[in-house]
Specification:
2 strands, 14 helices
Length: 264
Amino acid sequence: MLTISQLATYAGVTVRAVRHYHRIGLLPEPARDRSGYRIYDAEAVVRLIRIRTLADAGVPLAKVQELLDAGQEEFVRGVQEIDKKLRAEARRLQNTRKRLARLAAGDHLALPRNVVDYLDRLRGLGIDERYIKMERDAWIMIAGQIPHQIDTVIAEKHRELDHPDMVKFYRLVSKALDWSADDPRIVQIADILEGLMLQAVESGELQDDGLDKPFVDLMDSTMLESSPVAERLLAILGDRGWKGWTRVERVPPARLHDECSRDG
């Protein structure tokens, strides 16, 4: 969960802008904690980044709400209408027009071209579209936090997809959204993922990702809420000595930790 200042930082806007978007109805007001402070989640981060992207592209705020809630065809028509009006403006708006033209393809909104290509590669592997949407929303937030590292990160993700076990992992985990928490296939996913992580440790590939801890915690909590399978999978990996999802760490197995605590 995030405070309003953390939300503004992650989305690249000011706290004043967040409050303004609340006032005009672009960003729904969240629940408040016991102290009366607004508490935001990952969905708010994604929506705010989309609002900022559209606004930066020259879309009037009065039109942003319509585009955010529009279907794909309506979205394209709206963008084309705005683009037509911009044709009459001075050359300084040419770059803005190009950005608007890109908005007609859904995944391009708030995502770099190389991330869109990566998502398209997942589609080509037969990954469930619901899982790709989850990945897309995660990449929107990640790209906003480490824009200068995203090329390197995506290049590494493409390299990982060259491994047949990684492809197998993606295909299984994308189907797992509808599984129950006691489905025996979750152990198979854990086996594959652990094997991949062991290889990463041995090759020194588990390095600093440049993300701060509150953001990592937000990403992990979002993943845990996505399906009952997620919590079970992380519990299995925890018993085997692994911690985290967004940032994987090698730690003593949970059982060994409990024994050490009792001995102490």
